[in-house]
Design brief:
Elements lengths: L16 H10 L6 E6 L7 E7 L2 E9 L5 E3 L8 H10 L10 E2 L12 H18 L3 H22 L13 H9 L7 E6 L6 E7 L2 E9 L5 E3 L8 H10 L10 E2 L21 H6 L35 H5 L10 E11 L2 E9 L4 E9 L5 H15 L9 E6 L3 E6 L6 H7 L6 H20 L2 E2 L8 E5 L2 E4 L6 E2 L7 E2 L13 H6 L1 E2 L1 H16 L11 H9 L12 H10 L10 H16 L3 H11 L1
Helix pairs in contact: 3-4, 11-13, 11-16, 13-15, 15-16
Length: 610
């Protein structure tokens, strides 16, 4: 899980106790001087090092199973930052309150821990190999799916490790360890007959020792009730560094003879989600496979499993055929209407490509429409043609036949506002955070390309499934010139005023920063499960409300962190408003921090801490 302390200036990463003391000495040793470092014993935990009366005090902070953080015997906090803030106000059992952070000297980055690099590498490799992604698409997949992939890895990663021998007997383990040389620390891990129970077999002094690895109620692994770990591979990595009660530490693995090739570095686990299998499974709009290859409800479909994660033109052979204008013969327009607007209607269809047929949504311009409308649709098509991102509805092309038709990727889950209002009680709030994070990824991409959307709203966020959102409707969008930071509309139009930033309404000035404002309103719609913003107000009344410094209230189920972000998006002056790069980082940090908790655990948290 990405490190929630990584951004703190007083976080030093994986440094030793004596290094921490050195830094505190250099910092002056005054009472309440403190720093934070990673804890090696407790995965995901920290140590708070504090000086008081010219002495050092080190307090381990444990990451609890519900995703919160606490010093033994102390109150739980949602993150290490919040914990430090709490102890700065109240010593609550520490030697003294935290008074001054001992910040890292300029240029000194937090020291990465052994697990950080392994974990990041594994997530990256898993995504790269499972979905065969590269470059930007790989990066996007890592950003949006790290928590999900980590969960998959946590349960299956050990299966691909050379030291994992599957279900073999104690006698077989001994025979494998005694064959060849028998250096101290030679080991293997095997599964025992009882479900969820494993054994570690280790050579020391030419003798094989067996240790039982059990799982506690929360699913954490430990060797004979020693240090607890989320995953078996983390346990093994830790025991390579410290014996932690074993007769010797783990050194050399006995490669499993049944494994086809030896994997020297952490490799993606053997998982039934092999690329070909995953891509072919049919799915429901809730994002779960009906019978996910024997994985039950655990087998959530990730965005990368869907056929619209990558552009249909990511295949070079299809790319060769790519043209803005599509042949009518290759397009099947079905009767099913997905929706309608002033322009005409949106119908379901199929587009026949060279190698495959893809589901499409076809925006059909009403016949008898004026030239201006046709021009608008062509502008929208040309603009969309330049965009390629997993969180933006892609345009496949336009087709000029019985009507002018804009052919787009199909997002069959419908719009975000309708979905959320119809599924209020079924969609947990972290699912909303996940979807809004994806919207932020799409908007950050637009910002980087200097495109302004101008109509970001929950109605224009479409769902591929419950866990996969895409931004749509580029009818009002503009591509800015390289040196322009805003678009100045010549006249006002039929504008979605409730989504518009003050500078749009007052000065007709549109920029990525005004899209950030709209993102805040979209967040509000999402966290209020599809409610209409500024309900009782008329569009023009909203600007007076805003000028008075007022803002919409926090929706009932909305986490305070998300309301804080909305309020930042509603910073009156655009110069002071965060950009999408910042917004995406903020929502990502929050999303990762809550993704660590399961839904049950969140419920538990509400019970315990509310
Ligand atoms: O909210 P909806 O169900 O989703 O109704 C509107 C309607 O067409 C008019 O815009 C639907 N729609 C638009 N683009 C797409 C698309 N790419 N995939 C699926 N539905 C779409 C939209």
């Amino acid at each position: 899980m990405p490190n929630p302390a990584a951004h703190l200036p007083f976080y030093y990463g994986s440094i030793s106790r004596s290094d921490a003391e050195e830094h505190l000495k250099l910092g002056g040793m005054m009472d309440g001087l403190f720093l934070l470092r990673q804890c090696l014993r407790n995965l995901g935990g920290y140590v708070l090092s504090v000086t008081h009366n010219l002495r050092f005090h080190h307090y381990p902070i444990e990451r609890l199973m519900n995703g919160t953080f606490a010093i033994a015997g102390g109150k739980a906090h949602c993150g290490p930052e919040e914990l430090c803030e709490f102890y700065s106000k109240d010593a609550d059992g520490l030697c003294c309150p935290l008074k001054r952070p001992c910040n890292r000297p300029g240029g000194l980055e937090p020291q990465p821990g052994i697990f950080d690099s392994i974990r990041e590498n594994m997530v990256r490799e898993y995504i790269r190999q499972t979905w065969q992604l590269e470059g930007d698409t790989l990066k996007q997949a890592i950003i949006s799916q790290a928590p999900q992939v980590e969960k998959l890895l946590a349960t299956t990663a050990h299966e691909k490790m050379p030291w994992y021998h599957g279900s073999i007997t104690r006698a077989q383990a001994e025979s494998r360890l005694y064959s060849g040389s028998q250096p101290d620390g030679k080991f293997l891990l095997r599964e025992k007959k009882e479900k969820g129970s494993y054994a570690l077999s280790l050579v020391y002094g030419k003798t094989v020792y067996h240790y039982r690895i059990g799982q506690d109620k929360a699913g954490k692994y430990s060797v004979e009730d020693g240090t607890k770990f989320d995953t078996l591979w983390q346990l093994v990595e830790y025991l390579k560094l410290k014996p932690d009660g074993l007769i010797y530490y783990l050194r050399e693995s006995t490669p499993n003879p049944d494994m086809p090739t030896e994997t020297a570095t952490p490799a993606p686990p053997a998982h039934p989600s092999a690329f070909a299998q995953r891509r072919l499974v049919s799915q429901n709009s809730d994002g779960y496979t009906p019978d996910p290859i024997g994985r039950g409800k655990k087998g959530r479909i990730l965005p990368m499993d869907t056929s619209c994660y990558e552009s249909p033109y990511s295949d070079p052979e299809e790319l060769k055929e790519k043209k803005l204008f599509l042949k009518r013969n290759n397009l099947i327009v079905e009767d099913m209407e997905l929706g309608a607007g002033n322009f005409g209607s949106v119908r379901k269809g199929v587009y026949k490509m060279k190698k495959k047929h893809i589901d499409v949504a076809i925006k059909i311009l009403k016949s008898g429409n004026e030239k201006a409308e046709r021009d608008d649709m062509m502008k929208e098509a040309q603009l969309m043609h330049q965009l390629d991102n997993p969180h933006i509805v892609r345009m496949i092309g336009v087709c000029e036949a019985e009507a002018l038709m804009l052919v787009m990727e199909m997002a069959s889950g419908g719009s975000l506002n309708k979905f959320l209002s119809s599924k209020k009680d079924e969609v947990p709030v972290n699912n909303v955070v996940e979807l809004m994070h994806q919207v932020a990824i799409g908007m950050k991409y637009l910002e980087e390309k200097n495109f302004v959307h101008r109509d970001l709203a929950a109605r224009n966020v479409l769902l591929v499934n419950q866990h996969y959102a895409k931004i749509s409707d580029f009818g009002l969008s503009k591509a800015l010139a390289a040196d322009d930071s805003y678009y100045l509309a010549k006249t006002t139009g039929k504008w979605p005023l409730k989504w518009y930033a003050p500078e749009c309404i007052l000065f007709r000035k549109f920029s990525s920063k005004s899209d950030v404002w709209s993102y805040g309103v979209t967040m509000w719609e999402a966290f209020s499960y599809g409610q209409k913003p500024y309900k009782k107000m008329k569009g023009p009344e909203v600007i007076t409300f805003l000028e008075e410094g007022k803002r919409m209230d926090c929706p009932p189920k909305c986490p305070p962190e998300m309301y804080k972000l909305m309020q930042q998006c509603w910073t009156f002056k655009w110069e002071d408003r965060p950009d999408f790069s910042t917004v995406e980082t903020l929502i990502r940090t929050y999303y990762y921090s809550i993704a660590a908790r399961t839904e049950e655990r969140q419920e538990e948290k509400v019970k315990n801490y509310s």
